[in-house]
Amino acid sequence: RHPFKVTVIGSGNWGTTIAKVVAENTKLHPHLFKETVEMWVFDEKIPKSKDSEEYEMLTDIINTRHQNVKYLPDIDLPHNLHANPDLLDSIKDADILVFNVPHQFLAKIVENLKGHVRPHVRAISCLKGFEVGRKGVQLLSSYITDELGIQCGALSGANLAPEVAREHWSETTVAYQLPKDFRGEGYDVDHRILKILFHRPYFHVNVIDDVAGISIAGALKNVVALACGFVEGLGWGNNAAAAIQRVGLGEIIKFGRTFFPECKVETYYQESAGVADLITTCSGGRNVKVAKHMAKTGKDAFESEKELLNGQSAQGVITCKEVHEWLDTCEMTQEFPLFEAVYQIVYNNVPMKNLPEMIEELDSFV
Ligand code: NAD
Ligand code: 13P
Question: Is the dihedral of CA 250, 171, 24, 154 positive or negative?
Answer without folding.
Answer: negative
